[in-house]
Amino acid sequence: MGTTQLESVQEPKYWHLKTVLSEALDSDFAVGAVLPNERDLAARFGVARATLRQALEQLELEGRLQRRRGVGTTVAPPRVGVAVSTAQHDWTGGVVGEAWQLLDCTTDTAPAAVAGMLDTSTGEPVHVVRRIRVTHGQPVAAELLYVPSSSVPDLSAIDTPSGPARARSVLRELHRLGLEGQDRSVELGSARADDAKELDRLPGAPVLVVTTRYFTAGGTAAVSVATYRADTCRLTFGDSGALEISHEGQERQAS
Fold first, then answer.
1. Distance CA 21, CA 13 (A)
2. Which of 24-38, 215-229, 236-250 has the lowest average pLDDT?
3. Which domains does the chain have, with CATH numbers?
4. Of the residues 55, 96, 192, 197, which has the fewest C-beta atoms closer than 10 A?
5. For residues 210 and 188, what is the distance between their CA atoms, to the nearest angstrom?
6. 47-74 burial, b if ≥16 CB within 10 A, otherwise e?
């Protein structure tokens, strides 16, 4: 069999250097460590600075490195695993968990697609809980949880009209409802302006959009639309609904 055109193309120098640098990040640097300057790195690996910059840019795109203003280039924390599973996911970690931080809760209309999943009329107000997920001090996901009034009927007795306290109350009442299952879909998208601001990304940056529908005996209780940074997250598959964070062959559970 003859050699194809693709097989005859040599691997670019920067791509080979990226592989070497990636191995060095695993063995010689800890998460958050600041890399030496470009001149020192280029001398260490015997390459031109232009080649080095290409390799560093590729590693940044892959989420291995971060460029922090006033600090330099640092080793990025491990990717957050987004579990794709039909098992029950404990999203109520926003009440007591450390990974998710509640930001606000308002009353607004849901997008048409979400309203269809909730089986509510277009334009009907719902509770919208907004929260953000932080790992290693870095925002990696922003979530909007849409909850119709019928799912939290006792919420009317709470005076707080908005804010984190209202969000905690909505989650608490939803938890009491007793969820019986969920379905989840994941798709690649582009960060909208509001998501990009919360995730410290530029508008249009690649993101993973995870849409989850939570069920009760009476139908759909809530719909979550979570936007994850594509450069810091990866998909995981299995029977567990937990989110997994893995690094250097070790895994630990996160809420």
1. 12
2. 236-250
3. 11-75 (1.10.10.10), 80-246 (3.40.1410.10)
4. 96
5. 9
6. beeebbebbbebbeeebbbbeeeeeebb
Per-residue pLDDT band at 162 (split at 50, 70, 90)? confident
Residues 6+ apart with CB under 8 A from 179: 88, 214, 215, 216, 221
How far, in Å, CA of 12 to CA of 14, rounded? 5
Length of the chain: 255
What the block records as the tokens of 84 is 């794709």
DSSP lists the bridge partners of residue 49 as: none
- Report how far apart the first and last C-alpha atoms of the chain are (Å, whole number): 53
Model pLDDT for residues 117-146, shown as the tens digit of each residue: 998 888 889 999 999 988 777 788 999 999
Pair 191, 22: CB distance under 8 Å: no
In this prediction the pTM is 0.67
C-alpha to C-alpha distance for 145 and 8, rounded to whole angstroms: 51
CB 74 within 8 A of CB 32: yes
Whole-angstrom distance, CA of residue 7 vs CA of residue 48: 26
Q: What are phi and psi of 167, to 5 degrees?
A: -60, -45
Cα separation, 216 vs 238, in Å, equals 23
Handedness of CA 86, 205, 200, 192 (dihedral sign): negative
